[in-house]
Each structure stands twice: as structure tokens, then as C-alpha cells.
UniProtKB/TrEMBL annotation:
Boundaries of every Peptidase S9 prolyl oligopeptidase catalytic domain copy: 431-643
UniProt keyword annotations, A-Z: Aminopeptidase, Hydrolase, Protease
Protein name: Dipeptidyl aminopeptidase/acylaminoacyl peptidase
GO biological process, one term: proteolysis
GO molecular function: aminopeptidase activity; serine-type endopeptidase activity
Pfam family, one: Peptidase_S9
Length: 659
């Protein structure tokens, strides 16, 4: 589950004093000015603090492989902590603050925690005191990731690291205690990924060929020094391996080889022939779950639409599907956690895409129990709106998938926010989304568009977006807004566009286009100078930069087009109220692009607004900044589209105090 809540605090308001009364007055709601909203029976307004500073929040549940211990995140006082509980006695054993990540050991009921200083510790639930923790951080690395799950407790751990070159990984092994670093595979600069067999030896590798294709190689001798080519796939073809069989004869993979939509397949490593295990005629299958990484089976496959049930492939998968579908005919799996032999599974679900519940499923007994419910759902379920899946005809006849949320209690055309996802090689799932619900609660319809070029809907749909930034990819968004107007959903005089990263690019382009459909734009963490971005893409993208050139071209051949279709080139033509949001620590899209866009717009006397965070990167991570961002957005949209605002919230004092 995406982390909706970060480190939290609640600052009380003393209403008995004159100052307290001033705070109470200052925090009252601002009513809507848009006629359809002013006449509507809107639900109660949910405070910003309940969205991003909920002191009752509990989430991120994980149960040990033996089913005895539970670890989950919870807010206690002014801190986010991980609570460790003995489920057999319902006794809380400890709370652990300041953790970045945690997970259970696959072989024993021991919790592994990663602290913010990037140290990895082993915690015994029977003795969780801080001085009893054992440091098992892989030694001798600046950055590292465990690449596989060890088959036995004494097995050496496989570690991938970019220390030598940030563009690609080398592979090492370490002892279970983190020591004994040894190089296993040195990357010669062309390998995107290695796939290990069950003895943790390299079985397959995927190399980047000179023509940007992916060359799938298979080991031909025991020590991995000799390889042969199994197949070649072009850069548009989906192919990634999720598991290999115990006999190392087959690989289970998501593949679109020879088909438009990615399917789950079983690949013969001798011939390259594929057997389809699961597919969907409308969607790429992008997510699969294996309860035992060593049995050579996939148990469950998830669809990313709300209309399709998960696909069960094994008896344990059938148990998971049955227990999940008890909650609603339309339910999305947000995350699934399994440790050890795969009997006990923790699942985060969003029934009807209306926030989260947390389950513990026993796949052996075929039973489930509810571990918890996200407090926001418990408090505000009646105020949340459903997420509809719609199809929108583009001007050239292409059908564009989108998600639609309508504000409660509104009968006439409402103000609309068109949301644009980043990537652009990405897509929006049918799932719960906190910020969309925030906007609908303020009175806005939200239309989140999977424009051409989005992933998840097949190779042909994605390819239609290549080299179409600022053109067909952009007009898909305009056509979506017009569709909402034609359907009586949206008021043509109250339309905004919002997005981050590539979505910020599209919002910036819309903001500089006179005669377009929109009345306001929110441009976040945005690519605003395409040529500059293509010259300065993160070096760590390395061998995967081909995906950017598919969409945007190359500097040598396409620089003039990049300049023509860059918002920064058009900043002097800013055509509407615009809010620019950026983080100065952004290492993906440099903050300097937003800074230069603001400078050029202001040189032309445009009163563009800005929200610049000193302590954020490519997105907003800190809860304090989420509060500030939400407050600025709701006030900005209220001024220009006529929705309502919660106004000043006393949590803003806490945000400043705890910065």
C-alpha cells in the first residue's frame, strides 16, 4: 500500500481561550461558489488533517511465516512506529520507531528491520529490546539490495549493487550475518537482469543488444561461464521472469511475445516456446503472486481493472480468490505479503476502490480474519465515492480508458479536474486513490486518463504514443475533458488539469495553449524542457533509457521537435492561472526546469503561483508537506473553479512545529 500517512502529530486547539476561538474561526470551511455545488447536497467536508495527519492510522500489516507474530505500522503520540504483536495472546510486545522498511525472515519468526541510516537488523520478538538487535547489514556496500530469497537459513544471500557503476548491477554473495562479501557476477555493461536458479546460480540473463532489443540468454554449463541465446525481444515487448521451476527447465514470465497483450506464460528454456497460463483479451496481465518461490508455480494473477476477478491457478490460489472476493464483487488487491512456506498471507484490499481493509488468510485451513481497517475508511466511508471505468473516443477514433469519480450530491455539471499520470510509460489502476477522493470531497469530478502511450492496454495502444508528446498524447486529454462536458458531467467553464512528472509536462503544455479547454493548471515535478531532460536523464537509468527515446526521440535527430513541444518554450504564452509545485531535491526531473519556467512566465508578467519544497524530491514524501500541498491545491481550485475549501486547519501549526 502506498504510504498515505507519514510521521504524524496532533496539536490540540484550546477553545476556551480567545486565541483558541480565533483558531476555531480561522479553520471554518469556505463554501463553494460554483452554482452546481452551491445548490448541491454535498457530504460533510473531510478535514485535511484526516487525509494526511490521521493519528488513528494503522496500516502495512505483515504476519510471520508461522502465523504467530504481527508487525504493522501505527501512530503513537507524535510518532509513526512499527508495533510488534503476539497474535496467540493478543499481546503487544514492542513498538519500534524510525524504521524505513521491515519484513519477516522466510525461515524463522524473526523480524528484519531497516532503519533510516540504512542498517539492516534482525529482531527476535521474544526479546525485542534495542540492545538485543543483531546487525546483519551486508558489509562493504554503499548501496545494496537482496536479489533473491535464500532457500535455507544457512545459504549465502544474493546481493545486487550499483556501487561500481550506477547504470547497472553487479551481483555478490554475503553470509547470513552480512559478512564475507564475494563477487559472483561482474556486469560487463550490457546486462539488464539476471535470473537465478534455486541453488542461487545464474540461470538466465537479459542483455541490452546494440539495436535496443533485449537478448535473452540461458546458461549452458554449471558454473555460468558459457551462455547461448534463447531469443531476442524488441524494446516494446514485455518479458520479465517471475519464477523458475525446480528442475531449471522452465521459466514463468509475463510476456507479450507474439501477442498484443502481456500474458503469464511458461517458457521452455531449451526451445523458447511459450505455454499461456493466464491471459486477458483487454488488458496486459502485469502482477502475479507466488506463495512458494521454490515450487515453480504461480498461485494468483491480478488484473488492474475493477471489472475482472483475480485469476487463480492453484488450489491455494483458489482459497485466496474466494476469501478476497467475499468482500465485494469489485475489489482490488493493493498488496499481498507472504513469508515462509506460504500458509499465512496478509492482503491489503480496496473493496469498491473505497479505501483499505487488511486480511490474514490461512491457505491451509481455507479461512480468513480481518486484521484491521484503515481508520480513514472507518471514519469516512459514507463520504467516499465509487470509481467508474469509462472509455472515451479520441478525435481519431481511438478508445481511451479512464477512471471517473463524481462528487456526491451534485446533479448538474460540476467543475472537473483532469488528472494526468506520469511516466509516460505507466498507467492508472482501478484502485483507491487518496487525492482523488480529496478532490471529490471538495466538489470536483475527477477524470484520470490513460492516454495513448500508457502501459497496461497492449503493445499497439502503447506504441500509438511514441513521438506523440504534445500532439496526440496531449489531445487525448483535451478530448477527455470535452467528453465529460458532452456527457453532462463537467461544466465547460470550470475545467482544470493536474499532473506530476510527465503529467506535469502535459499540464504545462495545456497551461500555455490559448483556446484550449482548461481554465486552470497544476504543474507538479514537471518535465518542462524536453531537450534538457533528455540530455540530463538520471545516469542510473543507463541501459533502460531506450524507453525514453521511444517516446521522445534522440537529441541528435529530434532536438528541434523537443524545443517546439516544450512548455518552457511557451512560458511567455501562459494562458490561465497556474500553480507550479516542485522539490529542490528532485534527482529525476531537476528543479531548475520549474525555476526557469517560473522566471520566463514572470518576465512576461504572468502571475503564476509556486509551491517549492526545500526538502522534497520527485514527489511529496513528508506528511507536513502533504498537508501544505493539499491546502494550496484546495484554495487554488476554489478560487478558479469554485469548489469548497476546508480553510486553515490547526494541523498546519503542528506541521510547522514538527518540521
Amino acid at each position: 500500500m502506498r504510504r498515505i500517512v507519514k510521521v504524524l502529530a496532533l496539536l490540540g486547539v484550546v477553545l476556551a481561550t480567545g486565541r483558541g476561538m480565533a483558531y476555531l474561526w480561522a479553520s471554518r470551511d469556505t463554501p463553494p461558489t460554483h452554482p452546481a455545488l452551491a445548490e448541491a447536497n454535498l457530504p460533510p467536508l473531510i478535514p485535511v488533517r484526516d487525509f494526511w495527519a490521521d493519528t488513528d492510522a494503522e496500516w502495512d500489516y505483515h504476519v510471520s511465516g508461522d502465523g504467530r507474530y504481527l508487525a504493522h505500522r501505527v501512530v503513537r503520540g507524535t510518532q509513526e512506529v512499527v508495533a510488534l504483536t503476539d497474535l496467540s495472546t493478543d499481546t503487544e510486545l514492542a513498538t519500534i520507531p524510525e524504521l524505513w522498511h521491515f519484513y519477516w525472515d522466510p525461515h524463522a519468526p524473526l523480524l528484519h528491520v531497516i532503519t533510516h541510516d540504512e542498517r539492516l537488523w534482525r529482531v527476535d520478538p521474544t526479546n525485542p529490546a534495542r540492545d538485543a538487535w543483531v546487525d546483519i547489514t551486508p558489509r562493504g556496500f554503499r548501496n545494496w539490495n537482496f536479489a533473491t530469497i535464500p532457500r535455507a537459513p544457512q545459504d549465502r544471500r544474493i546481493v545486487s549493487s550499483r556501487d561500481r557503476n550506477p547504470a547497472f548491477h553487479d551481483v555478490y554473495t554475503v553470509r547470513p550475518d552480512g559478512g564475507g562479501k564475494e563477487l559472483l557476477i561482474r556486469n560487463e555493461g550490457q546486462t539488464l537482469a539476471w535470473i537465478m536458479d534455486h541453488d542461487n546460480l545464474p540461470l538466465m540473463r537479459i542483455d541490452r543488444a546494440e539495436d535496443d532489443a533485449g537478448r535473452i540468454m540461458v546458461r549452458t554449463n554449471a558454473d555460468g561461464t558459457q551462455w547461448r541465446e534463447l531469443m531476442t525481444v524488441d524494446a516494446l515487448t514485455t518479458f520479465w521472469v517471475v519464477e523458475v521451476t525446480p528442475d531449471a527447465r522452465f521459466a514463468l514470465a509475463h510476456s507479450s511475445r507474439g501477442r498484443d497483450k502481456a500474458a503469464l506464460v511458461k517458457v521452455d528454456l531449451e526451445t523458447g516456446m511459450e505455454e499461456v497460463l493466464a491471459e486477458d483479451p483487454e488488458l496486459d496481465l502485469m502482477r502475479s503472486y507466488s506463495l512458494d518461490p521454490f515450487d515453480g508455480e504461480i498461485d494468483l494473477v491480478r488484473r488492474h481493472s475493477g471489472g475482472g476477478e483475480p485469476i487463480a491457478l492453484t488450489p491455494r490460489g483458489e482459497v485466496l480468490k474466494r476469501e478476497i472476493m467475499k468482500y465485494s464483487p469489485r475489489v482490488q488487491i493493493d498488496s499481498l505479503g507472504v513469508y515462509g512456506p506460504g500458509r499465512f498471507v496478509t492482503v491489503t484490499l480496496s473493496p469498491e476502490a473505497r479505501n483499505y481493509i487488511y486480511l490474514l488468510i490461512d491457505t491451509l485451513d481455507g479461512t480468513s480474519q480481518e486484521l484491521g481497517e484503515f481508520s480513514f475508511r472507518r471514519k469516512h466511508l459514507d463520504k467516499l465515492v465509487p470509481t467508474e471505468e469509462v472509455r472515451i473516443p479520441a478525435r481519431d477514433g481511438l478508445e481511451i480508458p479512464a477512471l471517473l469519480l463524481r462528487p456526491k450530491g451534485v446533479t448538474g455539471p460540476a467543475p472537473l479536474v483532469v488528472e494526468v499520470h506520469g511516466g509516460p510509460a505507466a498507467h492508472v489502476d482501478w484502485n483507491y486513490h487518496h487525492f482523488r477522493q480529496f478532490l471529490t470531497n471538495r466538489g470536483y469530478a475527477v477524470l484520470s486518463v490513460n492516454f495513448r502511450g500508457s502501459t497496461g492496454f497492449g503493445r499497439a495502444f502503447q506504441a500509438k504514443g511514441f513521438r506523440e508528446y504534445g500532439r496526440a498524447m496531449q489531445t487525448d486529454l483535451y478530448d477527455a475533458a470535452q467528453w465529460a462536458v458532452d456527457q453532462g458531467i463537467a461544466d465547460p467553464d470550470a475545467l482544470a488539469i493536474q499532473g506530476g512528472s510527465y503529467g506535469g509536462y502535459a499540464s504545462g503544455m495545456a497551461a500555455t495553449e490559448r483556446g484550449g479547454p482548461f481554465d486552470a493548471a497544476i504543474v507538479e515535478h514537471a518535465v518542462l524542457d524536453v531537450g534538457y531532460q533528455m540530455r540530463n536523464n538520471p545516469f542510473a537509468w543507463g541501459l533502460n533509457e531506450v524507453y525514453m527515446t521511444r517516446y521522445f526521440g534522440t537529441i541528435d535527430a529530434d532536438f528541434e521537435t523537443m524545443e517546439t513541444y516544450s512548455p518552457i518554450t511557451r512560458a511567455a504564452d501562459l494562458a490561465m492561472p497556474t500553480l507550479v509545485v516542485a522539490g529542490k531535491r528532485d534527482r529525476v526531473v531537476g528543479f531548475e526546469q520549474s525555476e526557469e519556467f517560473l522566471r520566463r512566465a514572470r518576465e512576461s508578467d504572468h502571475a503564476v503561483e509556486e509551491l517549492i519544497f526545500e526538502d522534497e524530491g520527485h514527489g511529496i514524501d513528508r506528511w507536513q508537506n502533504s498537508v501544505r500541498h493539499a491546502r494550496r491545491v484546495e484554495d487554488f481550485l476554489a478560487r478558479h473553479l469554485g469548489g469548497r475549501s476546508g480553510g486553515w486547519d490547526y494541523i498546519e501549526i503542528a506541521a510547522d512545529w514538527l518540521d
